[in-house]
Amino acid sequence: MTATTHSFRELRLRGVSRSFGKAIALKELDLTLYAGEFVALLGPSGCGKSTALNCLAGLLPLTGGEIWKDEQRIDTLPPERRGFGMVFQSYALFPHLTIQRNVEFGLRMRGVRLVQRRSRAAEALRTVKLADHAHKRPAELSGGQQQRVAIARALAIEPDIILMDEPLSNLDASLRVELRTEIKRLHQSLGLSTLYVTHDQEEALSLADRVVILRDGRVEQSGPPATVYSRPASPYVAAFMGYRNLFTARATAAAGPGDTVSVHRDGYVFQATAVAGVQAGAEVTLAIRPDEVTVGEGGANQITLATEVVEFMGREIQVQGRMRDGQVLLLRTGSDVVPGDSVPVRLPRERLLAFGQVDG
Ligand SMILES: Nc1ncnc2c1ncn2[C@@H]1O[C@H](COP(=O)(O)OP(=O)(O)OP(=O)(O)O)[C@@H](O)[C@H]1O
């Protein structure tokens, strides 16, 4: 298949809400997808990701808000007229149909004639490198191959946008990584606009041009992978981005966004980087990733860690220890550390983030 010519500029969710009785799954969600973009909707279970995708696809009616594709309002259209291809966690293939017929299915529903159907399905199967399996039935393929069939089926209808809901979740670890690369390759070669739902930060960061983190049915942060990874906007996003060390301290002076802020905690004084403005005397949450904590003497933010648990991780080890005041700290290092050691470690100022305590 050749690179997509986009038939729209932007898809816009405006104040989209969805409730189930008293439970609010989406709260006035605003979200824009630009043509050609790969956007990952990321968040923990229950934050509203699937609801957002299903509202978009027309599988769930909205209880508030609107969805627009350029100047066309589409939340009032039936699913098949919205121009989306869908890929689900469960491959949702028909077991009694051949792979070829499964891929043709959406085209048949749209009244595409047999000859054209055949050639478009064959082309989609070539794109996902499954042309040789066209005559087989789903049960004869691996999980990863079945999901590629589902992707081919979505591609065959030549959608404006592909919606993917946790497409890799049913696969084992090695297949997951393999198909992730395949999805990235398809996006790079076809330039298809994609909205991809996942709870896996690594998947979101590796695939997407832009990551949107949802919290309780609202956008908590939206930005390029490198930004949400190194500059999370809140402790909630930080926790999701692998900042496994989160603990409180108190600011000794006010600081603006990006400034160095001095904080103290139980006899320790740390220099940290303020993510947003911090008031003097305010409680802050400090966040640092285990792989940013360094072992060794020297420099500011030096503490001694009483090590408790050491886990072998391949190139590195993960160490769990306690600070003098009992606070648990995780680090990753190539140094030789054993349980029961007293190890000097440093929390580099530029990687130790301080969040004002607005949302816990
Ligand atoms: N059919 C339903 N009836 C009642 N509540 C629902 C229904 N579907 C979703 N919810 C609720 O809406 C909220 C958002 O659910 P949703 O499935 O969108 O979350 P999610 O982020 O996709 O989570 P998961 O990854 O577990 O699917 C949750 O609190 C959920 O319990």
UniProtKB/TrEMBL annotation:
Molecular function via GO: ABC-type transporter activity; ATP binding; ATP hydrolysis activity
Sequence ranges assigned to domain ABC transporter in this UniProt record: 11-241
Domain of life, source organism: Bacteria
CC per GO annotation: ATP-binding cassette (ABC) transporter complex
Entry-linked PROSITE patterns: ABC_TRANSPORTER_1, ABC_TRANSPORTER_2
Matches recorded under SUPFAM superfamilies: MOP-like, P-loop containing nucleoside triphosphate hydrolases
Keyword Nucleotide-binding: yes
Xref: Pfam families: ABC_tran, TOBE_2
Keywords: ATP-binding, Nucleotide-binding, Transport
Protein name per its UniProtKB record: ABC transporter ATP-binding protein
Organism: Amycolatopsis suaedae
